[in-house]
Sequence to fold (435 residues):
Amino acid sequence: MTPKTFKIKSFGCQMNVYDGERMAELLDAQGLSPAADGDDPDLVVLNTCHIREKAAEKAYSDIGRLRREDGSKPLIALAGCVAQAEGAEAKRRSPLIDIVVGPQAYHRLPEMLAEASRGARPVDTDMPALSKFDAFPARRRAAPSAFLTVQEGCDKFCTYCVVPYTRGAEISRPWHDIVTEADALVDCGAREIVLLGQNVNAWSDDRRGLADLIRALAKIHGLERIRYTTSHPADMTDALIAAHGEVDKLMPYLHLPVQSGSNRILKAMNRSHSAETYLAIVDKVRGARPDIALSGDFIVGFPGESEDDFEATLRMVDAVRYAAAYSFKYSPRPGTPAASMEDQIPREIMDDRLQRLQARINEHQLAFNRSKVGVDTKLLIERSGRHEGQMIGRSPWLQSVHVETDAPAGAIVAVTLVAAGPNSMAGAEHQRAAA
Ligand code: 5AD
Ligand code: SF4
Fold:
């Protein structure tokens, strides 16, 4: 049977969200429509994440739950990084899967659907450079804050990480394609664009780097805000740092993962920076943009991590005073060098360290939020809040801010930040001039 309705569930990173949007547009162009809430779709695409074991296992438990009470099931496409990592093996693990499609093969989805409707179980985990982007239809929908992938893949080979294997080698989309897509997103309502890449600051085309791209995008009329994520410390160029001080539309927020504060562990992780060189970058960035909000990623319990190593990570958190940070227990991933390293850390120790790290991060997050109370700023309104008349917007520092306003999603409103919690802020809207 040819499917008529579909549902896409994306897990993991923002790039998966972006890929999910593009696949939806592709299916739309094939005449399929999104299933209404509560309706049973004919096709389910699980857009999966392989970064940690828990995320990968979730894909299989979700598949099991797609079987209907009468024993029938929708067409099931396993997409994303689990599909890439497992390939045909996925079909053996779950007989319910009809299609296995890796992140670089989405452009073949329509063909694969036709094959699956004829009873085949196609697998495509090829990695042809960038052809998927050419196959996607032009953008016709955008949220107030829209994602735009400019770079994919990773050549850094941190010893814990699957990304070089699931997303392939570092590759940059061409300048012209990105500008065209950005224009289209703004035309259909985006006020902010978040440039995405596994190593977004490694983006380059000819001799132009991310800083040049940001300066060009800043000229788009109607685009008010630009962000980018995720950056690697090794690619934090002087030009990009300077852009933070000079381009008004570039928001004062930088996600710059450090992973650990211990040089011994950073070395075993094959990170190309030390605690000191990372802190030197942070100083430079703050020199260019003193109010910048910094965020980071941390892994606790990497093989061989001692209590001293872990305490160096806590000192890193104190030294940077992160405005936000994400922390994870080390998860051994198949095929990565760290998975076979000696001295894997017991779960109880990881649990304890994660708790202590998160408590420390929360202190800094709350302190950052409190430091903004009383500040006049602007919010990009993104969606309605829980209460009547309440909307939720983002501050320039990416804080989630609740505000009473009749301004719709996509509006930019002037507020004073009036209260701070650990995860969100309250704002009071300034009187708006009568229209
Ligand atoms: N175990 C735990 N966390 C990991 N990350 C990447 N690989 C692993 C792993 N094997 C974390 C890193 C990275 C974030 C996206 O996920 O902190 O920056
Ligand atoms: Fe998960 Fe990494 Fe794949 Fe994103 S790129 S979905 S974080 S494994």
